[in-house]
Design goal:
Its cofactor is FAD. This is FAD-dependent oxidoreductase. It holds the Pfam family Pyr_redox_dim. InterPro entries: FAD/NAD-bd_sf, FAD/NAD-binding_dom, FAD/NAD-linked_Rdtase_dimer_sf, Pyr_nuc-diS_OxRdtase, Pyr_nucl-diS_OxRdtase_dimer. The chain is built from 14 helices and 21 strands. It is an alpha/beta fold. The chain has 3 domains: about 210 residues, FAD/NAD(P)-binding domain (3-Layer(bba) Sandwich), CATH 3.50.50; about 110 residues, FAD/NAD(P)-binding domain (3-Layer(bba) Sandwich); about 110 residues, FAD/NAD-linked reductase, C-terminal dimerisation domain (Enolase-like, domain 1, 2-Layer Sandwich), CATH 3.30.390.30. The strands form 5 sheets. Strands 1, 2, 3, 4, 5, 6 and 16 form a 7-stranded mixed sheet that branches. Strands 17-18-21-20-19 form a 5-stranded antiparallel sheet, sandwiched between helices. A hairpin with a 2-residue loop joins strand 4 and strand 5. Helix 1 runs parallel beside helix 9 and helix 3 runs antiparallel to helix 4. The termini are far apart.
Length: about 450
Amino acid sequence: MTEIDAYDILVLGGGKAGKTLAMDQAKAGKRVAVIEAGMIGGSCINIACIPTKALVRSAEVAETVRHAGSFGAKGGDVPVNMHRVAARTAEVVADMVDFNRRAFAASGFELVIGWGRFVAARVIEVQSAGGPRRLTGERIYLNLGTRAAIPPVAGLRDAGPLTHVEALKLDVLPAHLIVVGGGYVGLEMAQAFRRLGSAVTLIERGPRLAAREDDDVAAAIQDLFVADGIEVAMGEEIASVEGRSGDHIAAVLADGRRLSGSHLLVAAGREPMTRDIGLEIAGVDLDERGFIKADERLRTSAPGVWALGEVAGSPMFTHVSLDDYRVAKSGITGGDRTTKGRLIPSCLFIDPEFARIGLSEREAERSGQAYRVARLPVDVIPRARTLSKRVGLMKAVIAADSDKILGFTMLGAQAGEVLAVVQMAMLGGLPYTALRDGILAHPTMAEGLNMLFGSALSAHR
């Protein structure tokens, strides 16, 4: 009979929430083990946030060089060395992996490399290079993550499409990249490869890009992409795919039209990594999409088992996964932190950046709450002009019966940094007048908040 190793804390999956909880509890003197299939540090630093933003940065530099002449420097349409782009991205990832590996060792938890699955209610078997091992824990945390979904389109899977994972490793520049999906991943990838030099066609089945955003914001993003030379096909269903990605491939639309390219990248949503790991044996219930059912304290249906990160239905951001760690730690230490009422920011790393927190105008309208709207074109902010980044807008939603800030949206240079200013005001319960009247440094992009909130009383809903 295989011996079962017992731990105080056992984590299946080494993503942001799980690895942070493991390090914290190991430092606190607990016996902790993390089972990870192979991505040291989790998907964020290996195949998602970090390498994607490294690729985006290479694309930004290429675009800057092309337009360097307008700043008085020698520029022009220079070729991009994709071998170097891919190598730089890999170097950034390797540095982060090494940093995480050293942090893991310093914390004292045991890292078990291998694929784990439940073989009994509280027992996980790991298939590793050293042979099978069985582990259990007084508290078990599932930090399983998600992967790119491949829609059930005829011929698509056989065409060998790229996901963001393979796209980040390309050492050749696609002559013509077809991107399927107009969400965050699709938008970042489409613009990055366009600026690296690929022709790009973006296909979105819905009526607009960034479907969850307000109409004016979605239209501004689409205008930005069209100005970049990206072909945008909206409201289009793909009936089938012919050919092979990397050679010649065609997306056949429902009306019979063909959109042809050299490579095809699928960015059409995520699916949870909950299949074939014995969750039914553990007594862990899933919802209709395959995500783990978890309550506001991240408890699952199985006693002593919690779920962390996006597999638990948390919004798919690393910073939310980090807060799931805080919720999980609170449960260990007897605190009362939960996932309810969280103020969650989001940032889309296109150029210029898009960032939002709180309610959009559409969400405020649907909620039935009376509100006011403040709008400001980025072009009027002095810093935007000095940067020659004059495209975009700021938008705020304010309660009609008080001065409470309900939400903020920005498409513009440094939007993610400006967002943090508004977020702190919202977390502190400050009225919009605090940002209207605060002395903000000139010339900065954040200074635009003075101007934006100065117009707050002009638009009532």
